[in-house]
Amino acid sequence: MITVNPDGKIMVRRCLVTLRPFRLFVLGIGFFTLCFLMTSLGGQFSTRRLGDSPFTIRTEVMGGPESRGVLRKMSDLLELMVKRMDALARLENGSELHRAGGDLHLPADRMPPGAGLMERIQAIAQNVSDIAVKVDQILRHSLLLHSKVSEGGRDQCEAPSDPKFPDCSGKVEWMRARWTSDPCYAFFGVDGTECSFLIYLSEVEWFCPPLPWRNQTAAQRASKPLPKVQAVFRSNLSHLLDLMGSGKESLIFMKKRTKRLTAQWVLAAQRLAQKLGATWRDQKQILVHIGFLTEESGDVFSPRVLKGGPLGEMVQWADILAALYVLGHGLRVTVSLKELQSNLGVPPGRGSCPLTIPLPFDLIYTDYHGLQQMKQHMGLSFKKYRCRIRVIDTFGTEPAYNHEEYATLHGYRTNWGYWNLNPKQFMTMFPHTPDNSFMGFVSEELNETEKQLIKGGKASNMAVVYGKEASIWKLQGKEKFLGILNKYMEIHGTVYYESQRPPEVPAFVKNHGLLPQPEFQQLLRKAKLFIGFGFPYEGPAPLEAIANGCIFLQSRFSPPHSSLNHEFFRGKPTSREVFSQHPYAENFIGKPHVWTVDYNNSEEFEAAIKAIMTTQVDPYLPYEYTCEGMLERIHAYIQHQDFCTAPDPAPQGAHALQSPFVLAPNATHLEWAQNASLTPGAWPPVNSLRAWLAVPGRACTDTCLDHGLICEPSFFPFLNSQDAFLKLQVPCDSTESEMNHLYPAFAQPGQECYLQKEPLLFSCAGSNTKYRRLCPCRDFRKGQVALCQGCL
């Protein structure tokens, strides 16, 4: 350490005061130069990658190493400038501190001589000036090369005029202006040249024709399909538990459920294997992306698993995973956006480009959150591969909400609809929307010994309330009907609480707190009655209660709840009216297991309680909610549903081919003629079709149910002809084709027949008093409404 001479300190101090404006000027010059270089060279150098690009061509701009060297030198010098300025600032601060606090000792190498300060600053400024000149020379050289390359390769790299690719030239124009908007273009080798645009638009996207001078062998070799492999039923589910992952309470709940039901899945697989015999089953590669569990979607469910939150979605997803795995298919499971991108082959960037590889999955099961995430990150590949997606959709999506243009024009657009998928790609928890596919879930199945034990251990005066969250108990008027129930039965609740009893729960209710699933099952096995308060809608708990020998009592809604009058349904892509808390239980199970009454009518409610106390029921579980029923259903979907093969155009108008129908002997409906040929590949088989003309204002869903049948939207194309109306003896004074989710239909007055113009709008749902809709119905297997009798 040395001591600074007082005269030197004074000189330095004066020099700093003199140079302060100049120092600011130099800093401004440096900052301006940096910004200029980043702006000017960003498009040319930032997207360059080391190594050869698969799209490297002869027209590539030269001078890359020289440019990178200059940039590195400039970066080093600018960093040196910053360090020098920092040293000057410290020196000035130190001199001021010395004036205030006495002698200050500094290392010798941190104290440059005062006389050399001006020379060092001027040297830095000169270096910056030299770099600016050098960069200007490089830019001029680069532009000259670009000009020469463009002239030399114009014959090979002009946008072709090909009527088969009408959008090519427009896309090239777009690429010229916007190729730097997403780093994914540079990832695929786009570098700002015409050739790179055309190569990208013909080989990565498909807006331009293949360039004749490009080698197409690799692309042709990659497009060959893999050989088919037979699916084999699995009996060991331990690997599935590993695939499901960990770290979230929701995943822990799902894994526990899968473990508990393993024995039932294995037994169900054995039964289905015997039923199918030697039937070949293609093994599919399947991606399951549970979007609502990703952090990007908020994952609101996981924190509520241990606090009484809704478990229905997790019950269903656990059972979907188990069914797919037991059926023998290849499975990947993702619950994060990063995992999804990795499995799909999403290129780096903002999601504008297609996938880097052909989609390695035959099917993708996801939800609305996952659907949105895939659309954001798959680029054009989303449109190409969306036919492989299956959307788990609890409440269903009707065709009027699914068709983007129609929904926008006619007021059906919501936050969840307008995806333009085949409506059958949406898969529901209950079979309430035949336009969609019924996925379902499973309830634990009891053997005969367990059923007898339950019947002998029932308490005739014990009721359990359906509702684990305290908010459900805030129902207005509950005191009135609970008071009536309390006169006859001991009431039990399973409401979550942390320290104090929830004030919403009346004092006469015995609250057990939130129970683990096995303990909740034991409570149901003792109870006589399981009573709902009107919410939640269509959950799995009522089926579990009925399977454990309980009678389910629920409220009748008058008027019915829908998106028009109830906040819960507002924004959902359906106009369905819900007449009770659990329509499936009311319509497909019914008495004596399910009682639906008006809770506002005290006399009706009390009479129902008295009747229930004297009613004896056995544990009951519909076949479609057993493990075997779900395996059978998903097997049929995987092997037969194909939304990627374009269907044959539906016959339309008066000049269409004659429909293969005959009028039934009682002249009420149409049937498939016995001598008519079956359409190859059609599923369900068309010989199960029955066509009815609905009364005015009646939807096809209800019309088919009125006749003990199920509406089958895939049969609409066969009815979409004037001949179908004629065979039903409906006189058509005129026939028109339009986009309307109620067509085909007959309008009175006017004797006008309307045919459907847009196949995605064929819909079982919807009605209008003006129209008599032409409805395609089919039979169904006992206990399995999703499948016709000949569907396996």
UniProtKB/TrEMBL annotation:
List where in the cell it is found.
Answer: Golgi apparatus membrane
- Give the family from UniProt: Belongs to the glycosyltransferase 18 family.
Q: Which residues cross the membrane?
A: 21-41
What membrane topology is given? Single-pass type II membrane protein
Where is each Glycosyltransferase family 18 catalytic domain found? 184-777
- Look up the domain of life of the source: Eukaryota
Tell me, what's a Pfam family for it?
Answer: Glyco_transf_18
Q: In which pathway does it act?
A: Protein modification; protein glycosylation
Keyword annotations from UniProtKB, A to Z: Glycoprotein, Glycosyltransferase, Golgi apparatus, Membrane, Signal-anchor, Transferase, Transmembrane, Transmembrane helix
Give me the Gene Ontology terms describing cellular component.
Golgi membrane
Its Enzyme Commission number(s) read 2.4.1.155
The record's section on PANTHER family has:
ALPHA-1,6-MANNOSYLGLYCOPROTEIN 6-BETA-N-ACETYLGLUCOSAMINYLTRANSFERASE B, ALPHA-MANNOSIDE BETA-1,6-N-ACETYLGLUCOSAMINYLTRANSFERASE
One biological process term in Gene Ontology: protein N-linked glycosylation
Q: Which reaction does it catalyse?
A: N(4)-{beta-D-GlcNAc-(1->2)-[beta-D-GlcNAc-(1->4)]-alpha-D-Man-(1->3)-[beta-D-GlcNAc-(1->2)-alpha-D-Man-(1->6)]-beta-D-Man-(1->4)-beta-D-GlcNAc-(1->4)-beta-D-GlcNAc}-L-asparaginyl-[protein] + UDP-N-acetyl-alpha-D-glucosamine = N(4)-{beta-D-GlcNAc-(1->2)-[beta-D-GlcNAc-(1->4)]-alpha-D-Man-(1->3)-[beta-D-GlcNAc-(1->2)-[beta-D-GlcNAc-(1->6)]-alpha-D-Man-(1->6)]-beta-D-Man-(1->4)-beta-D-GlcNAc-(1->4)-beta-D-GlcNAc}-L-asparaginyl-[protein] + UDP + H(+)
Q: What InterPro entries does its record include?
A: GT18_cat, MGAT5_Glycosyltransferase
What protein name does the entry list? alpha-1,6-mannosyl-glycoprotein 6-beta-N-acetylglucosaminyltransferase
- Per its record, what are the GO molecular function terms? alpha-1,6-mannosylglycoprotein 6-beta-N-acetylglucosaminyltransferase activity
